[in-house]
Each structure stands twice: as C-alpha cells, then as structure tokens.
Amino acid sequence: MNFQTLIGVVLVLSIHATCSYVKGRWFDRIFIVFFENQAYSQTIKDPTFKAVAEMGTLMNNFYGLTHPSQPNYLGTIAGNYWHRHIDLDVDLDYTTVVDLLEAKNITWKSYQEDYPGGVNNCFKGSQYPYMRKHNPFMSFKNIRETKRCDNIVNAKELEEDIKKKSLPQYMFYTPNMLNNAHDTGLKGASSFLGPFIQNLHSNEHFMNNTLVVLTFDEDDYYHITNRVYTVVIGPMVGKNQIDENQYNLYSILKTVEDNWNLGSLGRREEHVNAFSFKNKTRY
Ligand SMILES: *[C@@H]1O[C@H](CO)[C@@H](O)[C@H](O)[C@H]1NC(C)=O
Ligand SMILES: *[C@@H]1O[C@H](CO)[C@@H](O)[C@H](O)[C@H]1NC(C)=O
Ligand SMILES: *[C@@H]1O[C@H](CO)[C@@H](O)[C@H](O)[C@H]1NC(C)=O
C-alpha cells in the first residue's frame, strides 16, 4: 500500500467513525440517573444534592408522573405507562425510545448496578439489590425477548466504556437499592452520588457534549404534588442556575426526541415541555 492509499483508507475510516456518531442539536450523549422516593423539599436540603445542583441547572418545577415507582420509569422511556400502577413485573408490547434511537443508528445502554445478566444472558428477574422494576427496558417484549437485551448491562461496564471511549449516546443508569435512596434514604444516596458524580464530571471524555440528568422517580407520597429534584449538568447548560419551566419525566423523552430529530412516539411526551437550552442551538 503506498502512502496516498494509506491516507485514503485512514480518511474513509475516520469519516465512517464520525458518521456512526450522530450529532445532536444540544448534546451528543445523554446520561440519565434515577434516584428513588424523595420529595424535592427534602432532597434540596441534603448538602451533597445541593452542591451537585450547583454544578449545573436545577429544574425547580419538575414532577414525577404517578405512584408507585415502576410506571415512572416506564413513562420515561415510552411516553406512557398504560395504567400499570404496580411494582410487580409487567410485560408490555409497545415501542419505546429504543425504537426511535435505533432507527437513527443512535447507540444506547441501560447500566444497572448489580444486574446479574449480560451479553447473551438476559436476566429477567430481580436479585437484590438490583430490581427489575427500576430497569424499564426489561418490561418491553421487543427488548427483553430480542438481542436488544444485550444492551442491558451491569453498571460496572460504564467504567470500561469510558476507558475504551465506546460510550453509547443514550445512557440510562440505575443505582442499586442501597445507593438510590430507596433503602438507605438520602444519606445513603448522597454518599454514593458525591464520588460518583465527581468522578464523571472530572472526566473530560465523558463530559464531552454529554448532558447528565439526575432525577427521582417520585416523591415520598406525603407531598401531594409529586415534585422531585432534577438537575442537569453539562457544557450545554448553565452552572449554578435555576430553570423555572414546568417539566415532568416525559420531558426527558421529549428532549431526546427533539435533540436528535427522532420524530415522536406520539404519546404523552407530546404534551410537555422539552428542556430549554436557551444559549445553544447547534444544527
Ligand atoms: C444505519 O446504519 C446502517 C448500517 O450501517 C445503514 O445502512 C443505515 O443507512 C443507517 N441509517 C441511518 C438513518 O443513518
Ligand atoms: C469531543 O468530541 C469531539 C467530537 O464530537 C472531538 O472532536 C473532540 O476531540 C472531543 N474532545 C475531547 C476533550 O474528548
Ligand atoms: C446562558 O445565558 C445566561 C444569561 O445570558 C448566562 O448567565 C449563562 O451563563 C449562560 N449559560 C451558558 C451555558 O452559556
């Protein structure tokens, strides 16, 4: 191979690599992290959650969808939860954000702490402290019963994906029951969150055009409104700012649809606000 041919091959390869990474309007990757069952008013008093809010923009008017946990997760990826007001396993035959992403060749993964399955080993149950009800992808037949299930992985893979620079573009991260505030409260969740977010935030590669969304599935049931703490962090949003627009968990789906021009699932996400990125429009 002569020098010109080599340069040609390198060019073709790098163009190919660029094409397989789909640029978004505001961000190129999204990293969604779900905590559990705490009211906004309690969460914002926690010193760690408060400090983390200052790393980005606090969504001051953000709501869970319903109770109990599971339907909030289902709605976040599917735009509806079809009256599944239960935390028992459900098997749904509907499309999700995965169908929209894959139609545009946008990669995705569900990182689940303590998930005992993996590639060619779709684990369909729960094994404490991993709970299937907090991993919404597993509830949809067209994921669970296909090769797509390989995209549900133990959260330890995140570190490897960062090292290999092979992060997917849509990432959903569920901390286990001891880290997500479910069983150890805000104290447990904040001792997890502090080092977790510091580690990611200081990683230049990870944060490169990545929007981090930290949210809660629902409040503690005692605050009728279901208002929850949600913070967005990344180079495309302000630091130490407050966003007063009204959002709920469907807003995450709507934001993803708008960011990559995915079209719409045509469900409840059509009736909510996508996140506002006042200062930045790339396209
Ligand atoms: C997705 O990738 C496949 C295989 O590389 C390609 O044939 C197809 O045109 C791509 N689709 C889009 C929307 O880019
Ligand atoms: C960020 O990503 C772009 C491509 O989207 C790349 O050109 C750039 O080198 C990356 N920067 C860092 C610090 O990784
Ligand atoms: C967005 O604009 C506001 C007001 O002009 C400014 O205070 C803030 O720093 C900007 N944020 C970013 C990410 O540029």
Automatic annotation (TrEMBL):
Signal peptide: 1-20
GO terms of biological process kind: phospholipid catabolic process
GO molecular function terms listed in the Swiss-Prot or TrEMBL record: hydrolase activity, acting on ester bonds
Family annotation (Pfam families): Phosphoesterase (PF04185)
Keywords (A to Z) from UniProt: Hydrolase, Signal
Protein name: Acid phosphatase
Organism, scientific name: Acrasis kona
